Amino acid sequence: MAVKDNFKRQCLLSDLGISPFKERIPWIGPDLQTLRDTFASDELPDVNSSEIRINVPPLKSRKTGGGSLVAYLDKPSSSLRINGLVLLLHGLGGSTRRRGLTRMASALVQSNFAVLKLNLRGSDPCRNYVDGTYAAECNSDLVPVLRRAREISYQLTNDFNCSKNIPLFGAGISLGGTILLNACMSDESLLDGLVCISSPLDLNECSSSIERPRNFIYQKWLLNRLIRQTLEDPFGIEETEKNVLVINKKDKKRKINDIRSFDNFITAPRWGYENVEEYYAKASPFFSLINNEKPIPKTLFIQSKDDPWVPFLAAERLMEKMKFSKDQNFNKFIFTEKGGHNGFHGVQGCWGDQVVSKWFLSL
Prior knowledge:
By secondary structure, this protein is of the alpha/beta class. The chain has helices at residues 2-16, 30-39, 99-110, 139-159, 175-184, 203-210, 216-231, 239-245, 259-270, 276-283, 285-290, 313-322, 351-362, and strands at residues 48-56, 67-75, 84-89, 113-118, 168-173, 193-197, 299-304, 332-336, 345-346, 349-350. The longest helix has 21 residues, at 139-159.
C-alpha cells in the first residue's frame, strides 16, 4: 500500500513537472531546513505592491474593539496576463515580513499570479490598527478577508482584460494553512483552490510535539514572540492577561511557560473557548475532515516526515480516510522524507515554492 501511495505522489509531481525533493547542502537535516530562512536571505526582484486594509469585528470575548488587518497586494509586472489571485498567510508568530513568505510570494508573482499577503491580527505590521491576537480558527477575521480578496480578484479581472473571472486561491504556511482550512469549512466557495504547507491538522498533537525536549529552543523562541506581540498591543490587554504574561517579581516566574499555557490563558478565552482543551478540539480541522462533516475546496497538503514541529501522522491518517471518500481524487497529499518545517530548500531553490506555483497553474 505504501509503495502504491508513493507512486501516486510521484505521478502528481511528474504531472506538475517537478522532481522529488532533495536537500541542498549545507541545509541538511530537519533543523537546518527549518531554520534556513532565519540564517540566510534570498535576493528577490522588486515588486509592485500596495497596502490594503480590511475591517474586522471585535474579538468574541470583547464587545468593543476590532479594527483593520493590513495586507499587501503584489501584482505581476506584465499587464498582458494574470493566472489568478493567491491569498497568502504566514504562520505562528510570523508576518508578511518573514523571508519564507516573501520568497513564496515572489515565486507566485513570477508565475503571473497576483498575491495578497495578509498580516493576521496581532502581527507587527497591523499592530496599531487592530487589538488582540489571532487563533487557529478565526473565521470572523478570515471570512471578511476572503470576501475582500474575491472583490479584488474581480477588479484584477477587469484590470487585465480577462475574458472570465480569475480564480482566487489560498496558500497557508504552517498555522496559516490551518486557519484557511477552518475558514473554508464555513463556506467552501470562498476559495477555488488551497495549499497547506506544514500545517497543523491536530492542534493537540502538534502542541505535544513542540513540547518535546528537543524543541525547547523552538518553543522558547515562539513563546517569546507571542508574548511580545500580546504585551505590545497599543489598545491594552486585560489585567488577568497581564498577570499571567509578565514575570512575577516575587518568584521570578510567570504562569505562561509553553505554547499550551499561552493558548489556555490567552488564545482560548479571547476566541470564546472555555479552555485549551476545547480550543484544540474545536479548532483542529482534522476532526471535521476525517468525518467528512464539511466540504473544502480542492486542496494540496504538503508535509515533511521529519518536520520537528508538526507531526505528519494526522495528514497521513486523513489521506487514508480520503481514499474511500467521494473526494479521493479531489484533494492531494505530498509527503517528503526530508524538508523540516516549511523548509524544502532543494538543489534548485525552494522546492515548496515551485510546487505551490505549479499546483495552482494546474487547477
